[in-house]
Every structure is written in C-alpha cells, then in structure tokens.
Amino acid sequence: MTTTPLGPNHTPFDRLGHDAAVDLAKRFYDHMDAHEPALVAVHRQDDEGRIAPIVRERFTAFLVEWLGGPALYSPKHGHPRLRMRHAPFPIGTDLRDAWVRCMKAALDHPTVDDEVREYLNRRFAEVADFLRNRPDA
Ligand code: HEM
C-alpha cells in the first residue's frame, strides 16, 4: 500500500519528514473545509459542520504510513482497503476532482519540493480515479 519509493533508498516520507507529512494532511482538510462544501458534506462533521477530528486523525495516520513513514494506521485499523472503505460514498468525477484539488492545494507549499510535489500529485490523482464508483449522470 505504500507509494513506490522515489529512489532506491528514499520514500516521500524521508524527503518530507514527520512534521511536513502531518502538516500536509492538515492543509488538505483545511482547504476542504474552506473551499469544497460538497466534499465536506460526505464526511463526518463536527458541530460546526467542519470535517470531524476523527476523520482527520485516521487519514493523517494513513498518510504517514502511505508516504513511507511509520505504520500508524494498519496495526490499528487493518489494511486500508480503500475501494471497500469508499464504497458507501458516491464518488464520480466531481468528488474525485474536488478531492484532487484539495490535495493539490495542500502540496503547493514550501515544505514540499518540486520533485516530491509532482510525484505525489500524479500518484494521488491515480488513486483518486481508482476510487471512482459511480458513473457520471
Ligand atoms: C476520490 C475522491 C475521494 C472521496 C470523495 C473520499 C471520501 C472519503 C470519505 C467520505 C471518507 C470517510 C470519512 C468519514 O469517516 O466520515 C474517507 C475516508 C478515507 N479516505 Fe477518502 N476519499 C477520496 C479519495 C481518497 C484517496 C485518493 C485516498 C488515499 C490516497 C483516500 C484515503 C482515505 C482514508 C485513509 C480514509 C479513512 C478510512 C478510515 O476510516 O479508516 N481517500 N474518504
């Protein structure tokens, strides 16, 4: 489930470091909360209608592990099985593109160098497309 390493001995996590990886997940949901109401609407929310802390926590743990960092997700939650876990949500091109916009905005930050940014934008776009489970109307 981890990304293909960027090089023989380094992963995106090696390049980013722990704090930048955690900040990436934070910026991703901050952008979603601020700019993508239709995407927020399919997630669990807090009393103010923002993405619930539990959602942020689980995705952050996944992201650290997926980028090649410590296994914070799978020992606790099992294999991510992303298609199965996303099956309840109607993911067509609109939600896919909204998700990709949030991640693109989050990756556009000085703690992410150009090579890592390009690589991750490409990988996230592939995974997001793989999670589509509804034909467009
Ligand atoms: C394609 C558009 C996507 C949509 C619309 C979407 C939507 C969602 C929703 C609604 C949840 C559940 C939130 C909740 O518990 O309330 C979720 C969870 C999650 N998503 Fe996505 N997602 C998308 C793409 C992705 C991608 C590309 C990845 C990985 C690279 C990903 C990884 C995860 C993970 C790890 C969780 C947490 C699963 C858990 O509860 O353990 N998602 N997503």
From TrEMBL:
The portions of this protein that span the membrane are none
The record's section on SUPFAM superfamilies has: Globin-like
- Which InterPro entries does the annotation name? GlbO/GLB3-like, Globin-like_sf, Globin/Proto, Hemoglobin_trunc
**CDD domains, from UniProt?**
TrHb2_PhHbO-like_O
Looking up Gene3D superfamilies in the UniProt record yields: Globins
* Statement: the UniProt record of this protein carries the keyword Metal-binding: yes
Q: State the Pfam families in the record.
A: Bac_globin
Record keywords: Heme, Iron, Metal-binding, Transport
Q: Which domain of life is it from?
A: Bacteria
What Gene Ontology terms describe what this protein does at the molecular function level?
Answer: heme binding; metal ion binding; oxygen binding; oxygen carrier activity
Under the heading PANTHER family, the entry gives: TWO-ON-TWO HEMOGLOBIN-3
Instruction: Tell me which family the UniProt entry assigns to this protein.
Output: Belongs to the truncated hemoglobin family. Group II subfamily.
How is this protein named in the record? Hemoglobin-like protein HbO
